[in-house]
Design goal:
By secondary structure, this protein is α+β, with helices and mostly antiparallel strands. It has helices at 4-18, 34-45, 76-84, 98-102, 115-121, 123-132, 146-156, 180-193, 248-265, 299-302, 307-315, 339-344, 378-387; strands spanning 26-30, 49-54, 67-70, 88-91, 140-143, 160-164, 174-177, 199-203, 207-218, 222-224, 228-233, 236-242, 268-278, 283-289, 329-335, 353-356, 367-374. Strands 9, 10, 11, 12, 13, 14, 15, 16 and 17 form a 9-stranded antiparallel sheet that branches. Strands 3-2-1-4 form a 4-stranded parallel sheet, with helices on both faces. A hairpin with a 3-residue loop joins strand 9 (207-218) and strand 10 (222-224). It starts with a helix and ends in an 8-residue tail after the last helix.
Length: 395
Amino acid sequence: MPSSSETTLTEARSGARGAMLQPGATIGIVGGGQLGRMMALSARYHGFKVGVLDPTPDCPTGQVADFQIVAAYDSKAAIRELAERSDVITYEFENVDADALDEVRDIVAVPQGTDLLRVTQDRVHEKRFINDHGTDTAPWRAVDDYAGLLRALGEIGYPAVLKTRTGGYDGHGQKVLRTADDLDEVRQQNEAEGFFPPSILEGFVDFAFEASILISGNGHEFVTFPIVRNEHRNNILHLTLAPATVSTKVAQEAEALALRLAQGFDLAGTLAIELFITKDDRVIVNELAPRPHNSGHYTIEACSIDQFDAHVRGIAGWPLPKPRLLSPAVMVNVLGQHVMPTRALIGEHPEWCLHDYGKAEIKHDRKMGHITVLTADISTTVSDLEATGCWDDLS
């Protein structure tokens, strides 16, 4: 006869696959950064235990988890250990070994599946999936060598962005091509390296502003968060303004495309969709992130359910309430160079909801935390934040 702990584990595993994961079960997270940390905190509030796989000892997620496996993300042995100690596995970033996850699906539930990973890990697959589900993207061409780049440029024209098909973030792995001189730099670099990485060429979109929308699901039900406006500095998200000031047409199209994509994935958990909004109110998808997202951090204070709670409920198979925006909000990132200036002003700004990610080493341009301000006047709040001088280096 199984022990009570064995019975609980059996029921939890069964629930994770077909019904609802019960409190007391363990959620394993691949990746121990700030997104995993906030997932773990949400999971704890819901009564779950948490394990994390990350190569950095005492990583941000490890600080709030029940256990940490210190190993490389792509270690199949480590992923199997995490699977054996968990009832559900999720991930906080997309560069996860999908094959390694497939190999442990016989012993642990992976509610998000691996199709979502494989699509979002490859920009060509991602663009094709988006287009196949009736949604616009920038014009694009797959590029496998320099000759292919020349052909693609002949069809798309300048300006364009050359991106590696896999990897890259916050502008890394990208090269803007505006003139023949930029193209020649690519040729010289490839000749020096002796290798042309599989890439994608994307045409520029003449957008009015960047935006994003979050959608969460439990595999068959889906709920959307409000569309928000994003402002980037040096290819890193600086501000999120919630909600975005958009027409009814734009809001409806953003929600509709989010639902199309979520249904295409049978989405479990949270999916972030980065958008371009054009001057004539077209909504164009830029990128997908198969997880909670930096631009959704405002939801922790400003919404009736936040993106991490929705993610945890989704992968646990729980029902999802429709998120409501309780207050307009501004979220600003705290990068390494902003840590000391913002800490010095905490005592002067009771309106700041400060989140510190617990990272051991402060580095320039590294995301160390964020601040959310609930407000009745977004424009004034943005001005007040900039007036502190904490973010002057990004002006």
